[in-house]
Amino acid sequence: MPESGINGIRPTIRMVAAEAGVSTATVSYVLSGRRGDGGPGVSDVTARKVKDAAVRLGYQPNQAARAIRTGRTNTVILSLTMLSDPWSLAVVEAVQLAARPLGITPLILGDADWAKVLQSHTADAVFVDAASEKDWETLATLAARGHKLVVFDESLEPVGFDVIRSGSRPGCDLAVRHLLRGHRKVACLTAVGPGGFAASQRYRAYTENLEAAGVAVNPEYVAGFERGTAGAYAAATQLLSLPEPPTAIYATSDYAAVSAINAAQRLGFTVGGDIDIIGVGNTVEGEQMSPSLSSVGPVDFFDKVARLLLERAMGPDAGVDRPRVLDFPWQLFVRESAPLRGPGTMN
Amino acid sequence: MPESGINGIRPTIRMVAAEAGVSTATVSYVLSGRRGDGGPGVSDVTARKVKDAAVRLGYQPNQAARAIRTGRTNTVILSLTMLSDPWSLAVVEAVQLAARPLGITPLILGDADWAKVLQSHTADAVFVDAASEKDWETLATLAARGHKLVVFDESLEPVGFDVIRSGSRPGCDLAVRHLLRGHRKVACLTAVGPGGFAASQRYRAYTENLEAAGVAVNPEYVAGFERGTAGAYAAATQLLSLPEPPTAIYATSDYAAVSAINAAQRLGFTVGGDIDIIGVGNTVEGEQMSPSLSSVGPVDFFDKVARLLLERAMGPDAGVDRPRVLDFPWQLFVRESAPLRGPGTMN
DNA sequence: CTGTTAGCGCGTTCAT
DNA sequence: ATGAACGCGCTAACAG
Q: If you placed Cys at A225, which of A172, A208, A235, B112 could pair as Cys (CB 3.0 to 4.6 Å)?
């Protein structure tokens, strides 16, 4: 007999049945609120007895046992690689808000090993950010196994799982062109992953729009950084300390832009005056800071993500029949850090 | 038959047994690596057959079913109220690092409803931050039910669960006294909870040490704020915009201190020169920023927390027999934002 | 209409 | 190396 401690301590449905003087079936029907619907009716008197007994013993159904029968865990998993990113926190918040009234608990998986965890652990639906091409097969396999996945990726093709695309590329175009209206000395501040940043769509929006506008890309104005906020701050400082500093900075994420604003202010620049800074993602943090951050981002993104995830979680247990692709139109949010400028205002 | 989809799709131990031509018991022994130890011996040939079959079918044991028998989920839960706080992220990181080699998955609970979730969901151990007096009974009940809890709280008494105390008070004393060596115009920047901040030990370290040093507490120098980083930034800005601004700021958390540094720099102050700023918590973020943040904090905190949590998770299933109290000595970390000063340097 | 019996669905584990 | 029981909660089918 394993864990006699728990056994001796945690009340089971059988104990409740004994305490109430009824069968376990009756207890199950009463406590899962399913009497009348499909199952047999239970008199109010009996229901009372059962509920009282349950309270007296402090009974709570064992979710693991329930899951084995029903296939539901009342749980969704959020696999988030950059927990510190405001973007991740926004996802968490939106999902929590939507999940609570449904009795569903969002659990966050902090590292990126969703592939391993999902092999054995089970949730009613799973949100995966930062998937990439190479994960395609893994995702397809998991989906075929009955996992309901909602994957955030710009280019993945859905196969038994849903894909959410932020459509960031046109949005980034908006951001760069916004700066190009009034500037020619436009710098780019971007995070470098393991594979460099040349391939990133967010970076290419920079080079391609500059070229399209007849502005040569100055290598000195391209600042890649690693290691989060600190790195972004350092890279921005370096940009602004150039003999001929840029008059505008296109940051490929809001958090990089925030760091750039801090760096600029520290160096005595007036953001939105001497220097314009724009971000990507349109996070609340950027919106609330001072000066408020101009940015581009999808509209109503997080709520819709949460809605889709929970719809899947509550939906039929059979695999996702018609996988969906959610594509978000991006919009330019002009705020203080990079106001609207006429052509030739600065250069 | 519920969820025929999953049933039809996800291979079970019985399918593996059939495929390998052995019994489910044998499969179980082989795949859980328990042959020889307690379980019966299984020949290498059979073991091979089983493993091959498992791979062929892509079998993965169902954790829910396993949990129902063994009482273990190979999971720990981290209940963290302030997900955006660097402190929380440090906890996550330390636990992830320690858990991975043990085959344990840390799951993060983002909102504060651990009480509800733990009623039904089960984990091998649970870390709870931001508990308070009023949670004492809930915690004790959960512990009595067999939950293994590690609770972070300054004053809670352990009853069947472990308590981690950061012993922040003496640390805060160090911080305030550090500033008082060279300053008399010392301000306090602190978050206000629902119950105000007067009761907070971190705040009282401010008032009491000022009084002890014969410095009157100037109400104008006490800045409470709400709503995270943005609020801290605003409150710090207000402090520094006073007709007679303070020459030093004691922030009751590192993230407030970071905001204060940003605000000060924006206003043209030289941090560590015109104005000294010290934080509480000694986070990596503060250490890595520029100027580096002076702070006070416990030594080796996160690793030890992770160690205790996982020790409990791996430990016997019977409730925690001898609950432990982990008390961390705090230390002063003098860095650039508030260097060591002799008496009377500034006032 | 009310309640129970019996058996399901897992992986684990003890006798055989 | 195995059959069968076990732990849990759920639920179809049956009995009163």
A: A235
Neighbours of A270 (CB within 10 A): 10
| pLDDT of B177 strictly over 90 | yes
> Which is higher by pLDDT, B71 or A229?
B71
Confidence band (pLDDT; 50, 70, 90) for A87? Answer: confident
Do the Cβ atoms of B49 and B19 come closer than 8 Å? no
CA B4 vs. chain centroid, Å, equals 41
Tens-digit pLDDT profile for residues B140-166: 888 888 889 999 988 888 888 999 988
Q: Residue B331 has which token pair?
A: 């230390």
Residue reference for tokens 């919009």:
A331
Q: Is B138 on the interface with A (CB under 8 A)?
A: no
CA–CA separation, A294 and A262 (whole Å): 14
Spell out the residues 6+ positions from residue A101 whose beta carbon is closer than 8 angstroms to its own: none
**Of the partner residues B3, B71, B96, the one whose CB lies closest to the CB of residue A71:** B3
- Edge-first strand order for the sheet with A330-333 is A222-225, A186-191, A248-251, A276-280, A294-298, A330-333
Mean pLDDT estimate for chain B = 87
Q: Which amino acid is at A76?
A: V
- B interface test, pick of A15, A111, A254 with most B CB neighbours within 10 Å: A111
- Determine whether the interchain pair A122/B265 forms a contact, defined as Cβ–Cβ distance below 8 Å: no
A 89-108 residues with CB below 8 A of B? 89, 92, 96, 100, 105-108
pTM for this prediction: 0.82
Contact A305, A127 (CB under 8 A): yes
Fold of A71-167+299-330: Rossmann fold (3.40.50)
Q: Which residues contact B50 (CB under 8 A, 6 or more apart)?
A: B16, B20, B22, B26, B27, B30, B31, B42
- φ/ψ of residue A294, rounded to 5: -70, 140
Task: Please give the DSSP secondary-structure letter assigned to residue A293.
Answer: P
Q: What is the DSSP string of A86-115?
A: HHHHHHHHHHHHHHGGGT-EEEEE-SSTHH
Instruction: Give the model's confidence band at B289: pLDDT under 50 very low, under 70 low, under 90 confident, else very high.
Output: confident
Same fold, A71-167+299-330 and A169-297+332-345: yes
- Could you tell me the CA-to-CA distances from B118 to A75, B55, B142, B321 in Å, in that order? 13, 35, 8, 20
Structure tokens at B222: 């006490």
Q: How many CB atoms lie within 10 A of CB A80?
A: 26
Strands B294-298 and B330-333, by their bridges, are antiparallel
Cβ atoms B93, B110 nearer than 8 A: no
Which pLDDT band holds residue B8 (cuts at 50, 70, 90)? very low
Rounded CA separation B99/B307 (Å): 9
CA distances from B60 to A90, A116, B39 (A): 33, 10, 20
Of B212, B17, B108, the residue nearest A75 (C-alpha): B108
Query: Nearest nucleotide (C1') to the CA of residue B39?
Result: C13
Q: Taking residues B223-230, what's their average pLDDT? A: 80
Burial-class residue B122 by CB neighbours within 10 Å (0-12, 13-18, 19+).
Answer: buried
Domain boundaries, chain B: 6-60, 71-167+299-330, 169-297+332-345
Put simply, whether A238 touches B (Cβ < 8 Å) is no
Architecture of the domain made up of B6-60: Orthogonal Bundle (1.10)
Task: Let me know: does B103 contact A121? Beta carbons within 8 Å.
Answer: no
Q: Which fold has domain B169-297+332-345?
A: Rossmann fold (3.40.50)
